[in-house]
Automatic annotation (TrEMBL):
<dbReference type="InterPro" id="IPR027417">
    <property type="entry name" value="P-loop_NTPase"/>
</dbReference>
<feature type="domain" description="ABC transporter">
    <location>
        <begin position="78"/>
        <end position="317"/>
    </location>
</feature>
<keyword id="KW-0067">ATP-binding</keyword>
<keyword id="KW-0813">Transport</keyword>
<dbReference type="Pfam" id="PF00005">
    <property type="entry name" value="ABC_tran"/>
</dbReference>
<dbReference type="InterPro" id="IPR003439">
    <property type="entry name" value="ABC_transporter-like_ATP-bd"/>
</dbReference>
<dbReference type="InterPro" id="IPR017871">
    <property type="entry name" value="ABC_transporter-like_CS"/>
</dbReference>
<keyword id="KW-0547">Nucleotide-binding</keyword>
<protein>
    <submittedName>
        <fullName>ABC transporter related protein</fullName>
    </submittedName>
</protein>
<dbReference type="GO" id="GO:0016887">
    <property type="term" value="F:ATP hydrolysis activity"/>
</dbReference>
<dbReference type="GO" id="GO:0005524">
    <property type="term" value="F:ATP binding"/>
</dbReference>
<dbReference type="InterPro" id="IPR003593">
    <property type="entry name" value="AAA+_ATPase"/>
</dbReference>
<comment type="similarity">
    <text>Belongs to the ABC transporter superfamily.</text>
</comment>
Amino acid sequence: MKNNILINKTIDELLKEYPFLEETFEENLIDMSDKTVSLGEALNKINEFDLEDRALTKEQISTLIENYVDQMSEILGLKENIIEKLTLLPGTDKSGNKENFEKLEILKGEILCIVGPTGSGKSRLLADIEWTAQGDTPTKRHILINDENVDTSHRLSSGNKMVAQLSQNMNFIMDLSVYEFLELHAASRMVEDKEEIINRIIENANNLAGEKFTLDTPVTSLSGGQSRALMISDTAILSSSPIVLIDEIENAGIDRKKALELLVGEEKIVLMATHDPLLALMGNKRIVINNGGIKNVIETSDDEKEIFLELEEMDKKIQDLRKDLRYGKKLKI
Ligand SMILES: Nc1ncnc2c1ncn2[C@@H]1O[C@H](COP(=O)(O)OP(=O)(O)OP(=O)(O)O)[C@@H](O)[C@H]1O
């Protein structure tokens, strides 16, 4: 079985996560009397005579279970939940030299920042991840999902995307209200509690943006900050994509710290290109890019976390001054 994640899980865990497997186990000689054993162990325990009788091999049974979980997850929209880890394997920089790392693993719930001078290749790295590069981009990098090479058939399909990209420009061209826009999106995701989800999205978006907007507001009249807040909240709450790529959350009147917390709170992997020290220090690690290649991966140190607290206070002061300025007040510290 190529999916080690399934084979190492216990029968109990598998039945809780994929209740539809019970019948499959029954039909395929998997003993469910002891649910604490792993699927791998249960497969090993199958009697050779029974296998011969059914003209099956253990490998065939494991492949059958794996394919079934894959298909059902796709149909039930569970697929996004099975991304636990993203792995980046080195390619080459712009001069053709191998990148300076062996393997970079990013786990669910982690924030990684990407830093480097203009033109150094930050957007390229985000694009490699979005494309789940298999040595077929200018950098020759490879991306693995859950330790496996990726089935690239998803690349051109529109539904169930693995990666959501929050780009710098959010231009709405549709003539819809915020409610209609969210309703369309909710319908395409077939969510059960549409109204509740829509309310949660707008509430969180308003929490990020300075000036409040309502469900009746036409999307075309949202300000830059408001539309960005709406897209971030929508991505965090409604998007099925487990990986979120952000090409700089600029300072356009949104609370950047809350935005990141919202995205990561929904158990996603977040990769963000940024030059903003406050955002960079919110990450667990940062990838340093130069001349198209990854030169270093730095873990955020305890000292840096202290700096983060200072920056947070400075940032709050600046935000307050900005607000006062907007509302025509005299500035004082
Ligand atoms: N390893 C590489 N090999 C070949 N070309 C590369 C490599 N990395 C990046 N490039 C190319 O270099 C150019 C600049 O890269 P990119 O746009 O990613 O930079 P950036 O750091 O995002 O810049 P900015 O901060 O200005 O947005 C792009 O054309 C990109 O395809």
